[in-house]
Amino acid sequence: MQPVLGVLLTLAVALGSGHRSPLNDFQRLRATELLAVPVDPPPLLPEQGSSEQCAQRCAASPACRFLPSPRNGLEENYCRNPDRDKRGPWCYTVDPNIRHQSCGIKKCEDAVCMTCNGEEYRGTVDRTESGTECQRWDLQHPHKHPYHPDKYPDKGLDDNYCRNPDSSERPWCYTTDPGREREYCRIRLCTEKRLRPLNVTTGCFRGKGEGYRGRVNVTVSGIPCQRWDAQTPHRHHFTPEKYPCNDLQENYCRNPDGSEAPWCFTARPTIRVAFCFHIRRCPDELGAQECYHGHGERYHGHVSKTRKGITCQPWAAQAPHVPQISPVTHPEAHLEENYCRNPDNDSHGPWCYTMDPRTPFDYCAIKPCSGSTVPSILENADTVTFEQCGRRDERLQQKGRIVGGQPGNSPWTVSIRNRAGMHFCGGSLVKEQWVISTRQCFSSCDADLAGYEVQLGTLFKDPGPGDPNQQTIPITRIVCGPSESQLVMLKLARPAALNRRVALICLPPERYVVPAGTICEIAGWGETRGTADGSVLNVARLPVLAHNECNAALRGRLKESELCTAPLRAGVGACEGDYGGPLACLTADCWVLEGVIIPSRVCARTDQPALFIRVSLYVDWIHKVMKMG
Ligand SMILES: *[C@@H]1O[C@H](CO)[C@@H](O)[C@H](O)[C@H]1NC(C)=O
Ligand SMILES: *[C@@H]1O[C@H](CO)[C@@H](O)[C@H](O)[C@H]1NC(C)=O
Ligand SMILES: *[C@@H]1O[C@H](CO)[C@@H](O)[C@H](O)[C@H]1NC(C)=O
To answer: The domain 394-623: what is its CATH number?
Structure first.
């Protein structure tokens, strides 16, 4: 295995001849770790390593030999670590049978925990937070990357340890999983939060530059920055004492507050703050800066990662996913290598098949170019015909938790249940094996849903074992919608059986705008605040509000991807436990899923419109997810 070979060679070269052979100490190899042969118990030492007992770091390399010199610390017979042995300081022993031995000195606190963003962390964690083994920094596979140890000698890029060479939020590494490029590692925070002087001479920024630690100290237009520890010319509260982890040193541009980019107070009294957009981007982030026009159907750039950082599958490959769109089917679409493309004119931009077997396709980390305007979807709400139709047995309609609701019949509404079997959110059955719900119901787009289930076909929140229509089906997968859609699709372990109590709701045509005044229904088992029977499915009726009216009521905060219904005087609306459920509208004899219930600040308010995700904006995506599996 290549990584192991790397370790051996490095050690052999570093030690040269005439000294102890480190290879005698190791008998077997586990991944990239060298395991020591058990030796006699180390000499007794106090439990807690003090700073004196901690290994004195070997001074800069060339002078670092095994022979004592005034600068290398090899004095008397003290335990030292001139060869950076993984087990820490050692010494030659006076026992003729044991040439040398580790002294068993405990690691200093700062080697096992990190302060601030962990740029100085030099510990030996070598797995990501998902448990994936890290790729060695000196290798270029499975991931090609710019952080070669030789190029960044001061970043501690040893072996495959988690490091933070690029001022990210936390230490991270490239992973040995070809489908996952880089991932953060979980490293304990040191209890003592010190402001440590950093010695970073280079600096680049990624994301919004919260972790930028470089020395640029002028704004983008060249105005000098004010020192963070000064209160003139501008008074402010971003003092180094208050923000000990944000490295507010000197007058360097920083981003302590999650702004768009690093910034500073300027030394000019008339200009309070300004951005430092001219700081360069980190080398591996450059690709993500490209942008696309329109839907990106003519995007021919070289980004080849999804928005979650998963590497794209080459368009011509047949694994891990068998593509339905390939250079053969779409010869005009420039499907080269594994670059993000938009061969099917997906309205959410360039995408690719991914190397992650669980994610057939996803959108790429490319933004629409600024100035490329997306036409409003709210025009041209012409009459449309529905090809497929959500229908229900209207005889089941009666006079199930929705505030102000009535027990009702909503055969597409499903109850989503956690491992304890407790209802926590609603969803809508759009295909036998697919349920739509909202992102807010789940901790992440990679949430482990083992043990989660949907329950269908029953009016009751907690049906008895004898309920004849009840179906319970495990959830196998969660797929997050295009960014900002807040939608998720849940794949079921097997198709639901359709009957009088379980039916599909139909999807609106892409970009269909449901006319104002249409009477729609919300359904759920959520909080009723004592207004209805909380143990059965409740259904309530609400009229759709015109977009501009709703926008005015919300003081301009309504997005085009949202839809609202008028508040009713009686206080009817969705609450905790209803989220993810349907806003179903009867159009041309069909029940259509026009909205998905999302949380608003206060549930079921009498003076505020209720908000929903406008499903018609994401219908192309929904069909694509169902088609690809
Ligand atoms: C900081 O880095 C500079 C340039 O690499 C070096 O000369 C200096 O000695 C370093 N200072 C500390 C405290 O390590
Ligand atoms: C910016 O920092 C450099 C040292 O990194 C210093 O020489 C220079 O004077 C500073 N400029 C301003 C405007 O503070
Ligand atoms: C993609 O869709 C947009 C909007 O529907 C349309 O204007 C554009 O012409 C389409 N592009 C192609 C190549 O079909």
So the answer is: 2.40.10.10
